[in-house]
Amino acid sequence: KAGVTQTPRYLIKTRGQQVTLSCSPISGHRSVSWYQQTPGQGLQFLFEYFSETQRNKGNFPGRFSGRQFSNSRSEMNVSTLELGDSALYLCASSLGQGTGTQYFGPGTRLLVL
Amino acid sequence: DAKTTQPTSMDCAEGRAANLPCNHSTISGNEYVYWYRQIHSQGPQYIIHGLKNNETNEMASLIITEDRKSSTLILPHATLRDTAVYYCIAHGSSNTGKLIFGQGTTLQVKP
After folding, report:
1. Is the dihedral of CA A22, B81, A41, A16 positive or negative?
2. A23, A27, A45, A64 — which has fewest CB within 10 A?
3. Which positions in chain B touch A103 (Cβ < 8 Å)?
């Protein structure tokens, strides 16, 4: 099976812009979670989607949003980008909701200038 | 989910067993112990998980103490490609997929 894919892999934006990141889960996986990784804060949970519904949300401002489509693919959006949003954004897929066994993609590295 | 504590860094000689400890003294009965690793600039990789029995797969073995307050991940024959940050996570069988990553242990495998 193909693994989790994320596009784009690298992105450079300027402050105030918005960005959309895409994640395609492993075939058959219905749950997608998103994480942000920065050198200062480490890996932090953003949100989890299952059956097109957001099931859980981490402690991030409303500028961070996401959605999941009927084919389980997911997107996350960050509006009004700030310098501190520069990070590696990771997507993970799993078979069901709430499982700790998650399979991560390679991530999208976002640089905000 | 319970907090876990791991040493910041460890070294291991290539070909030897790497034993990575994790303390989870406040773990509750329905929480599993999960191990992930992250090789530089890649996404985390699931390794193994267990509840109370020891577990083994093609990557590693997981030894959980009888009181479940600590565990050890064992890489039986470490190679240079095992150099990574290893995360120990306590995760309950709840309805949330939120994994709480700590700082992990940086394992350096040396030739």
Report:
1. negative
2. A27
3. 46
Residue with tokens 């009965």: B29
Contact (CB<8Å) B101/A92: no
**Per the CB < 8 Å rule, is B43 touching A92?**
yes
Mind giving me the DSSP string for chain B? ----B--SEEEEETTS-EEEEEE-TT--TTEEEEEEEE-TTS--EEEEEESSS-EE-SS-EEEE-TTSSEEEEEETT--GGG-EEEEEEEEESSS---------EEEEEE-
The pLDDT tens digits of the residues spanning B27-37 come to 988 899 999 99
Answer yes or no: are the C-beta atoms of B1 and B31 closer than 8 Å. yes
Q: Which residue of B has its CA nearest to A88?
A: B41
Alpha carbons B27 and A94: distance in angstroms, whole number: 23
How many residues are listed for chain B in this entry?
111
Q: Which chain A residue has its CA at the smallest distance from B95's CA?
A: A98
